[in-house]
Predict the 3D structure of the following.
Amino acid sequence: MSGRVLAASLVHDHPPGALSAAVQPGADPAAPIDEVQDQFVHACASAVRLDGLVALGPVFSARARDVSLGDLEVNLETWSAAELDFLEASIRVKPKNGENADEFTARAGRKQRRLNEAVRERGLTVSEHSENKTRRILTTLAEAARQSG
């Protein structure tokens, strides 16, 4: 397993409490999705249907950007949902001028190994789960909903 993941996301800020109505029983969880988000979903995941969504949760998360971890600048995110709690540590590696694809890939691999080492040195375990955090959280919440309902 390479430990590298390609991800795409679209962030849309809402004022505090703006999503409360969408997660009430009988409400339409897709109501707050705007036109740009709808286009993004259709472009990136055309098989995903937004009608018939079911609100799951809650999900708690917090983020800290550019945290020094050894010689690396790391983005940290904590996530909690149902019985799942985890910390995501990630780095962004950008190509340097004149760097070819092989050089970039090798440099990114070295940085990933340094990140893994820095995490382990602090007594944490690097997960072997290959699925992304969104899938892990949704799977956990769906299973919790099945067990309680």
